[in-house]
Amino acid sequence: MSFSKTLTDWYSVNKRQLPWRQTTNPYYIWLSEIILQQTQIKQGLPYYENFVTTFPTVFDLANANEAEVLKLWQGLGYYSRARNLHFAAKYVVNELDGVFPDTYKELLKLKGVGDYTASAIASICYNEVTAVVDGNVYRVLSRYFGIDTPINSSKGDKEFKALAQELIDKKDPATFNQAVMEFGAVQCKPKSPDCTVCPFVSSCYAFGKHVISELPVKIKAAKVSKKYFNFLVFLTPNHTTVLEQRQGKGIWQNLYQFPLIESNKPLTQKQLELELKDLDIIKEQTYELSLYNKDEIVHKLSHQHLYTKFWIVDLDSNIKEGTPIAALEDFPVPILIGNFIEAFNF
């Protein structure tokens, strides 16, 4: 039996019932694929359902403002996905009259859509014979065929794409693509897969050579950097605080946060008070400063770890243009800030 047939037979019995598998509407498939990038299904499913409910068509998403989209995305991380999603929706509506591209090449023109997402949409919605290659597919193919080319290299990109394209079922590319992704997610897991129930166990290179834990191969990423974040949570007598919107192209672009002082090392209270002297908001004000969390909260991003402290700044006087504390939940914020807002007794 061929690799493709064995795989799709397994899928017919073991596939999970998921809402985006009940449709070939490119808008819903696109939404699911963008949400599930670097996100597990159990985490992404509620977000998908919320997006479909709030923005049932691409027109609804395109007509939303960015803050609404970011707020709905809050907690998923990698917020550039949400901004690209919104940008692409407006492009489809304004430039394509609300009609999604129907080929792999045209789908690649949408912002935030790469090879994997374009292949998924093209095959599932339009039956185009173009293979998907993601983390799950890398793992399945590298283990079964014994490929040790690093998956995060240009050579690996080409090699695995070519192999997947050779293996794909030309008559039913949609089922094959969904099957190989599902097999990697459910059966050929990253750690300790149950090979006793695997339909490929008798012919799998990694199982036969006892190298399951060694495949796939990945070039080690650069060392993760450390940053020290000191958030200033201002409190006024009339129950307002201060939020500011992050600008530029760094992390959390366009999300809101409390005023931030970054440092290369942990700051003591005395050191922080020296920094506060330069802030316009507390000039000619008296205030009381206290540390909310004795132990730093470590927020891990892909390329950096943020060692975070929240400092409470009680002001004696009110401030102009403060943000009502009662309105904090209306703003899209990073999950780090959202967790603080939820936990802090304002």
From TrEMBL:
Catalysed conversion reaction: Hydrolyzes free adenine bases from 7,8-dihydro-8-oxoguanine:adenine mismatched double-stranded DNA, leaving an apurinic site
Enzyme Commission code: 3.2.2.31
Record text on cofactor binding: Binds 1 [4Fe-4S] cluster.
CDD domains: ENDO3c, NUDIX_DNA_Glycosylase_C-MutY
Any coiled-coil regions, as ranges: none
Chain ranges of the HhH-GPD domain: 35-186
Enzyme class name: hydrolase
Cofactors required: [4Fe-4S] cluster
Family designation: Belongs to the Nth/MutY family.
Function: Adenine glycosylase active on G-A mispairs. MutY also corrects error-prone DNA synthesis past GO lesions which are due to the oxidatively damaged form of guanine: 7,8-dihydro-8-oxoguanine (8-oxo-dGTP).
NCBIfam families: mutY
Protein name per UniProt: Adenine DNA glycosylase
Native organism taxonomy: Bacteria, Pseudomonadati, Bacteroidota, Flavobacteriia, Flavobacteriales
Gene name of the record: mutY
